[in-house]
Amino acid sequence: MSLWEYANPKKFMQTSQVLLPYFAVLAAVCLVIGLVWGFFFTTDDYRQGATVKIIYLHVPAAMMAINAWVMMLITSLVWLVRRHHVSALAAKAAAPIGLVMTLIALITGAVWGQPMWGTWWVWDPRLTSFLILFLFYLGYIALWEAVENPDTAADLTSILCLVGSVFALLSRYAVNFWNQGLHQGASLSLDEETNVHNEYYLPLLFCIAGFVLLFVALVLLRTRTEIRSRRIQAIMARERLG
Amino acid sequence: MMPDLGKYALEVSAAYGASILLLLSLVLMSWTKGRKVRHQLRELEKRRAKRD
Amino acid sequence: MIALLIRDLRQATRAGGGFGLALAFFLIVTVLVPFGVGPESAVLARIAPGVLWVGALLACLLSLDRIFALDFEDGSLDLLATAPIPMEAVVVIKALAHWLVTGVPLTLAAPALGVLLNLPQGGYGWLVLTLALGTPALSMIGTFGAALTVGLKRGGLLLSLLVLPLYVPTLIFGAEALTRGLASLDNATPLLMLAGITFGVIAILPFAAAAAIRINLR
Fold it and tell me: What family name appears in the similarity comment (chain A) (predicted)?
């Protein structure tokens, strides 16, 4: 029993059919618990007031925006090395989710920044990096849409994803160098002393779990869709030939 | 039931509203597309099975 | 390989080859900016480094889709793929030709345009130096983008969308080195980073671009 068994589309379809409802329900439960807890049952921060509640959307979305790209990078590599179609299609399926996550992080950040920093947008390193990440997602999705042959599209987007990752890291460094920011440092880490206060910590954990589960459920769902539409294309092509 | 959000009520509710709207539309779009493709494939396979 | 380079240069300088288009575009952009922001010398001097860098970058972008398009259409790219020289070398030659046709003229023309924008004295050396260091990276990254989109019918717009985010680090370090040079600050770090990006890009991207072309020709 190895991981590579799931590279078989049929096996993947069977397993994901079983798993998908669990992930979907768990994601919904975690998100509802985390967001309701965060929105209704936490007190306001003494400095930031009620805006601290935005953290329950902002932080998980930002985490998933980056994690989605990492997942695309890994699946792209798997596709380039081992030529498993499921892997390439999973990367394709993940990109729009990452795009939406980046958008959420940017929007909630702007709404949060307005009362805290007095401006919707500053050219702060973190904000700018996310804007660049957003552009990378757009380019990646556009390339998938533009190339007609699915295997060619998978190859080209994989290469773009690899090169893009290098440049994304480079941009992150460059932007850091270019401007020191207003954004606070990471507020979550394993080092307990620097963490946000416990009261905010627990609901935040639920929200993060919810976002991760939602991401997994959506990737499964969208990959299933992609596999099916590939199958439709294959059948159509065969009918046209026959 | 609505908690007192103080002077930042607009910002907080806007952030929640926009994010939940985006997430819901993503889920809905993924789901409807999945359903459409699933039905399409089922039709296609039925047609093929009938002909064979 | 040298024959290929000469052929590319000849094609570019021929009538309708697009040579000079980038220069004209660069000129127009720099002329338009004062109309947009007003003629105050102090303001223009303040934004001159950024405007010149962005203008050069956009001018570079303009001619990217021509790098492989003509060769792809008339089939000579297929011939090059079966030629004894490796595809990586072809890519490097193409990027070099693009740089000689756009990057070098842009670099040489930039001081003249700097006068129009009231670039402070002492900045001209830095302007030429940063552009000379940065434009090879722009050409190489652009060649990679062109290789990705070579088989597409309407690749031009997509090419810009793919390439512009990749230009961000080069632009930041280039403009930063120039601005710091103007203010007589220490600009060794951005200059070194700019050079590092250029050399790194030249070392790595030919492989990615050649792989993309092979995929597109399949």
Answer: Belongs to the CcmC/CycZ/HelC family.
Distance from CA of C118 to the nearest CA of A (A): 24
**A96 in Cβ contact with A229 (< 8 Å):** no
pLDDT tens, residue by residue, B3-50: 666 677 777 888 888 999 999 999 999 999 999 999 999 998 888 888
The domain in which residue C55 lies consists of 2-217
Q: How far apart are CA A98 and CA A226, in angstroms?
A: 17
C115: which 2 tokens?
């006068």
Name the minimum distance, in Å, from the CA of B34 to any CA of chain A: 5
What are the domain boundaries of chain A? 20-241
**What pTM value is reported for the model?**
0.88
Segment A162-174, tens digit of pLDDT: 999 999 888 888 8
Q: Are A72 and A161 in contact (CB under 8 A)?
A: yes
C169/A174 Cβ within 8 A: yes
Structurally, chain C folds into a number of domains equal to 1
> And the tokens for C210?
């050649």
Checking ipTM against 0.95, whether it exceeds it is no
pLDDT at A189 over 50: no
CATH 1.20.120 fits A20-241, yes or no: yes
Residues of C in contact with A144 (CB under 8 A): none
How many CB atoms within 10 Å of residue C73?
10
Nearest to C215 among A139, A152, A171 (CB): A152
